[in-house]
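Changelog entry: the Anaphase-promoting complex subunit 2 TPR repeats domain-containing protein record was regenerated in this release. Current contents:
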Amino acid sequence: SVRAAIIEPRCDGGDSDSDDDADILAAFDRISGTGRSLPDQPQPVLQYLRVQATRLLKTLDSTRSTAAAARDPALPAMHTLGLARLPQVRRLWAEVAEEATAARVADTEQDDSTEGTAELLDWKSRVVDAFADVVTGSVAGAFDSGVSSASDREFRDEWAAHFADRALQGLGEARIRNFFNLAVEFPDSRPALAGLATCIRRVPSLHRRLMVEARRTLERRLHHAGTRTEDVLSVLAQCVKALSCLFPRGEAGAAVSEVCGPTLNHLRRRRDAVAALVADMAKPPGAEGAHVLQYHAPGEEDDDGASPQRGGGGGGNFGGHADVLRVLLSALSLQAVVREYR
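Regenerated structure tokens:
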């Protein structure tokens, strides 16, 4: 039965090679004869198991059926030989799942909606978590693995937690790399920012990464003599609004200071900064190029003129008109702004 499980799936795929089959059969025969460990030359067995794991993940993704995937004849053979609990085999499974997760994250990043984050987690549960259930024999109607151990349950729990974090970390890293564009495109990018907020809440290490990469990107893109002051003001205002979608009011202020601080200092050194700010303030809402005081389209503001907080951060109105202006004025002279405005 073990030999049949090895040869049959390869023949079905149409890519069987007799020499490879002989190597795999010989390796499995050595496992059967020497106990529950991989042979001295484990590559043929591990390569075969990698192919089977990849095929199993694809089956789970396409059929959405753990019962169909659990009928893979190689699975009971693995348990008969005691391979399913070997560290080398479980590391191999993790590598295959990592590759599948990375590919799925790349696909999800093409969808800037909040739903993309939820769909990614749904895929992880439906495919990656189900994979761990199938290979440990815990799926109803599947083969009998012979042993129902606490170690298998612990493995499945750790697997589920790891790949939830891995999926969100991958998506969060991708959106952090794209944060400059997300800020410039605000408010159209609000759903993508809400998804990034979810990633940061679940994977706290992303917070520090966002602070560092967003600050460096602003410096790299804006700290040049050839960059117009109007563009520096515009991007700073957009960053304040974008960061307000990621964090509650108290945390948003600290995030703005850390991300925008060096660029605010750069703005302070520009001789035309005050004139550019006043010119932007004088533009009517909705006018082309008006960024500093415009948070939402006209009619969406609260009675006090501040815009309602939306997105993943939750709480407060940070990022509204008064907050954006307050941040910019922290780098400029209020008296100079008043004189220029008059």
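The chain is about 70% helix and 0% strand.
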